[in-house]
From TrEMBL:
Annotated keywords: Oxidoreductase
Name this protein carries in UniProt: Malate dehydrogenase
InterPro entries according to UniProt: Mal/L-sulf/L-lact_DH-like_ah (IPR043144), Mal/L-sulf/L-lact_DH-like_NADP (IPR043143), Mal/L-sulfo/L-lacto_DH-like_sf (IPR036111), Malate/L-lactate_DH-like (IPR003767)
Native organism taxonomy: Eukaryota, Metazoa, Ecdysozoa, Arthropoda, Hexapoda
Entry superkingdom: Eukaryota
Length: 324
């Protein structure tokens, strides 16, 4: 199916009700209450049903999809569960949609439940607004205040872009962040403005260093985007063989893991998704030492930031965004 997500779409037929079932999303359609523009969260071919009701209940926006001249809508519900402002919900939804549409299924709707859990546990503050703690013409240090990842990331990248427009370069670092989705989302914003963009972040310890038995360092993703005349250059990668979400997708599909992705609790390779997710222990980029896995382990230092942490204290996520 070739669905294109429509981020904002004007509802023309109040009370419209149609159903499209040829999708991995089992979409129920309800009447809508008013005529206005609504956010389309997503309608992408996906390997397993997604909790569309959670999207509506907790993020407070409608599902709207367009196929030819048909419009699918779901009833509007109030955003009362986690107090996520509409603007913040839209930014997070845009990122989820873009991830799935670009083929990053591990970081699209697959990540929704993760975000909702963090909101329910107050690990993420859906209403938080990032604050600039210190800045110079070319740099800034930001406190993300544990807000939604997309909201913090967009704020930081946009700030870096504005600085680059003024002095030629922008470098923004942030603390107290949360999971910010696909790293490529932020260089793409720089590319649209004609700049080279880089983003990188730390994560909780998920990578098992070469010759070790347990996870001790983050997957620490990084992305680079460079504008070009005939197709832009865009690299988005984790420093592990795969992101944790790729293993989640394999489990949803009921398939084993390829060799070289993960280890079991004894530090031995496993292809069992349940074993790999029970206590995540991802292999470095390259996999086995014979296949240069130590290079992936060494590469993690490029965006290393408190990847090792006290097991009795929650880890904190930081991000760095660079524009030139």
């Amino acid at each position: 199916m070739n669905w294109r997500p429509t981020y904002l779409y004007e509802v023309e037929h109040v009370g419209a009700a149609k159903t499209i079932k040829k999708s991995y999303f089992d979409i129920g359609v309800q009447d809508i209450r008013s005529k206005r523009s609504y956010l389309c969260s997503a309608l992408i071919s996906y390997p397993t049903p997604i909790l569309t009701e959670l999207l509506i209940k907790y993020f407070g926006f409608l599902h709207i999809a367009q196929k030819g001249k048909e419009t699918v809508v779901l009833r509007e519900k109030e955003c009362i569960a986690f107090d996520v402002p509409q603007n913040h919900a839209e930014q997070q939804a845009d990122l989820l949609v873009a991830a799935d549409y670009r083929g990053h299924l591990s970081h699209g709707m697959n990540r929704l439940e993760f975000y909702l859990n963090d909101l329910s546990k107050k690990a993420t503050d859906g209403a938080a607004v990032a604050k600039v703690l210190k800045e110079s013409p070319a740099t800034a240090w930001v406190d993300g205040c544990n807000g939604l990842g997309a909201v913090i990331g967009n704020f930081c990248m946009d700030l870096a872009i504005e600085k680059a427009k003024t002095v030629g370069v922008g470098w923004v670092c942030a603390k107290n962040c949360t999971h910010y989705g696909i790293a490529a989302w932020y260089p793409l914003r720089a590319i649209k403005e004609g700049f080279v963009g880089i983003s990188m972040a730390n994560t909780s310890p998920l990578m098992t260093p070469t010759r070790a038995k347990k996870a001790a360092i983050g997957t620490n993703p990084l992305a680079v985007g460079v504008p070009a005349g005939n197709g832009h250059f865009l690299l988005d990668m984790a420093t592990t063989a795969v992101a944790l979400g790729k293993i989640e997708i394999q489990r949803r599909k009921g398939e084993n893991l390829p060799a070289g992705w993960a280890l079991d609790s004894e530090g031995l390779p496993t292809i069992d998704t349940d074993v790999a997710l029970r206590k995540p222990s991802l292999m470095p980029l390259g996999g086995f030492e014979l296949n240069s896995g130590y290079k992936g382990y060494g590469n993690v230092k490029k965006c290393y930031s408190r990847g090792l942490y006290n097991k009795f204290k929650p880890y904190t996520v930081g991000g760095t965004l660079f524009v030139h």
